[in-house]
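User: I'm curious whether this sequence folds into something compact or stays loose and floppy. Could you predict its structure so I can see for myself?
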Amino acid sequence: MSPAASESPTVPIAQAPPEGIPDRTPPENLVPRDLPPSEQPLPLPEPEPLPPLEELLEPTAPLEPLQPGGEPEAAPQTIFVERFEVVDSTVFNADVLAEVAKKAPQFMAEECSEIPNIQTIDGTDVLVNRELTFAELQQARTAITRVYICEGFITSGAIVPPQEPEDNVVRLQVIEGSLEDIEVLGTQRLNPGYVESRLALVTTPPLNQQRLLEGLQLLQLDPLIRRITAELQAGPRPSTNILEVTVAEADPFSVDFIANNNSSPSIGSFSRGVQLNHLNVWGLGDGLSMAYSNTDGSNEVDVSYVIPLNPRNGTLQLSYGNTNSWVIEPPFDILDIQSESSYYEATYRQPLYQSPTEEFALALTFSRQESQTRIGFADIGPFPISPGADENGRTEISAIRFTQEWFKRSGQQVLAARSQFSLGVDWFGATTNPVGPDGQFFAWRGQAQWVRLLREDTPLILRADVQLTPNPLLPLEQFGLGGQDTIRGYRQDALLTDSGVLASAEVRLPILQVADVQGILQLTPFIDIGAGWNVASKTPDPNVLAGTGLGLLWRQGNDLTVRLDWGIPLIANNTRRQTWQESGVYFSVVFNTF
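Assistant: Here's the prediction. I'll summarize afterward.
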């Protein structure tokens, strides 16, 4: 690790400017940052109801997991039973089931909610130590079957197998239900194995209805699937079933047109772009995203491809982005400052726990970022503008990022959190400096969001973001404050520091609804506050930003989202108000044409 310097290197052009060059040091955020996907802010989740269970598993005639025969022709009228012995149960303790059999009449009167406490059911052992009829034996096996059914094992149960009782012991055999096959119907582009492999995880023997329903809910939440229904049918052998699944695929292709004024004013704050998405390129559930955007001083291209690696939704994502920009902000526009930056990323993400309401996942990313700046004025050529750049204006970062993500949602609220450890390594020519920031660093970033519905269409949104590091960081890795996504009332990345914290609160109040177009207009009062500080170089003054204001948000189904925010800075930071963004006015439009 390079030793820290007391000050970041000063930009030489500001020491003795030739004639015609502004006598002023360019700000550190003059050259905008192009952040790769792994460093993008945590997306805002929204509470949403889960798919209704009754729409996923179609009601069928009562399943008969077993076909016990009637009373044997030669069976005695009664049989003396001293105790029951239960065999072949892999779910419940055999002794517990034997207790259920002994107390069958009392147990049959209990509600299913009492099943977890079956060992505490009171009552006399009415079916032991006396003569039992065949009907009473059937009552004992029915009680055991009910235990299974109440716990969701709807195709499992017990029988009284043919036997010659010894020592007055009657054996009850459990037959646990299983799936013979999963048949997937209705798929067009999507490989049926995508659905089958995921359902196979939740239908391992013995078949459990609740696990099956959770698996169907997860698939219904999958953006590849518009609708999914399933039906259990009797299999070719006793206690086996066939699961017939019907899938209606969602349209995998979409085009988003995007416009906003969230870019750095140094390259022109007004950005317009288009993003093409395909969620199922080769039928494997693999997605491709291609985006192009520009401002008056930049052109940006981003490409991302993600492919599932296993039925537990482990994925590999490959990303690439390139940005060419030139400074158009006075007075530095006369310098003809140009920048080219690129990023390459490979991310393996694996959920360790996944249910319709909760997920915990780990991700490992290798990230490569490169940046080159040059000055066109007087044909100066490659030149270090940003802190930490080498004498040719190049900055290179190779980093390994370890991410942990968690969310929990319901119809009323969503909690989401992300933790990320980043380690800059000296690979592939990463920037190394004897003093000051370079490509060898360690940083931790934590993000959290809580969205709570106060009433219908009225969410309260709380956000927190923090970055901590013991090292001076290159601008590409620093913590940015200012702009519509962080602290409204300031220009984009008005404060750029090694470490920082951010807190934000917003409530969305519905003021107009247009049912014909699924439109809703919300008033959004907000307050944002954040602070930043540097490790080795001087911390900017002020290093605290705070803003408050109002916004309007129009959402029209999934087709159109328009947002307008007006932020009022509560702490002055000497920003020149030459653009809407610098005056605290932000807008964004996202239009989905498909």
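Summary: Confidence is low (pLDDT under 50) at residues 1-18. The radius of gyration is 32 Å.
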